[in-house]
Amino acid sequence: LKLAVLISGGGSNLQALLDAAADPEFPARIVCVGSDTDAPGLAHAEAAGVPTFVVRPRDYDDREEWGQMLSAAIQEHGVGTGPEPGLVVSAGLMRILPAGFVREFSPHLINTHPALLPLHPGAHAVRDALAAGATETGVTVHVIDEGVDTGPVLRQARVEIRAGETEEELHERIKQLERPLLVQTVRDIALGELDLAEAARAAP
Ligand code: GRF
After folding, report:
1. Residue 4: enclosing H or E segment and its boundaries?
2. Which of 16, 111, 120, 188 could share a disulfide with 179, CB 3.0–4.6 Å?
3. What one-character DSSP code corresponds to residue 166?
4. Predicted model pTM
5. Which residue's C-alpha comes closest to atom 8 of ligand 1?
6. Complex-level ipTM
7. Residues with CB under 6 A from ligand 1
């Protein structure tokens, strides 16, 4: 299974996927890594010899055009939408993918989110869970639909919230579960043990 991974930050989830894909037995390989900015995590891809690209929203008149260019870059690297679809993995992309982009790749696009969706959608999930005084939170891998963090849930993992911990401390503890969960979810999709079309149909 060919993966296009999209990031905006440090890319520790990308690194986990790169590490997994280094094993020739792993049923997926990362054929490109894209970002909306000069993400530090792009260095992980470069170190692994994986092609990278940056498609900046500010270079385009509107979000849909940005999405079209992002789609073109992904497809140029062999992650297609045709009979042999690849998989787009949003792993810390701090952008909402435009509707046209989502429709083009759906359901072969997934996102990882540091909360137990539908709780705490959006860009500040960890902070929101802390602010809500929750005793636990977690991470969700889901199919991306045209909403914000609203697509069908594929996998979740829970983590307790410790009194007094900071957003950064909690987020790192979430990531300790998130990285293997994302790798496992990609593996299950690649092996056909998790059917994205079925998951998308089954969603309420
Ligand atoms: C991850 O926790 C992801 O769920 C969230 O942003 C974080 C990215 O972390 N959207 P990294 O860049 O993979 O380290």
Report:
1. strand 2-7
2. 16
3. -
4. 0.97
5. 92
6. 0.99
7. 7, 9-14, 41, 91-92, 112-114, 175, 178
